[in-house]
Design goal:
The chain is α+β, with helices and mostly antiparallel strands. The chain has three helices and four strands, in the order βαββααβ. Pfam families: ABM.
Length: 111
């Protein structure tokens, strides 16, 4: 195993030192999917410009109503700043009613 690949000596994946969100946007109909398609380019542009954003992908799947989401941020502060910015954006205003199925992982938060 190459060093720095985020796997332990037994080959099992180690927890990421970054904050990661993985999941899906699940649209109810074609109109919601069109909203995602229309607002997504600007949302991606703004997110990738944020301090601490390491990667951000929202991609269509084989189902025209389902989109995969994968985000990675340097730390909890940058992830939370993204969440705050996103909630105050045209993206959120347009897509708030769309179902989200996400899991978030990262290092333990400091008290």
């Amino acid at each position: 195993m190459p060093s720095g690949d985020n796997h332990g000596p037994d080959g099992k994946a180690l927890p990421s030192p970054h904050v990661e969100l993985h999941g899906r946007l699940i649209c109810e109909n074609a109109e919601q999917s069109d909203l995602v398609r229309r607002h997504l380019p600007e949302h991606i542009r703004l997110t990738l410009a944020e301090d601490g954003c390491l990667s951000f992908r929202v991609e269509e799947t084989g189902d025209p109503l389902v989109w995969t989401v994968a985000e990675r941020f340097a730390d909890w502060a940058s992830f939370e700043a993204h969440q705050s910015r996103s909630r105050a954006s045209a993206w959120w205003e347009a897509t708030a009613a769309i179902s989200r199925d996400f899991s978030i992982s990262g290092p333990a938060r400091e008290s």
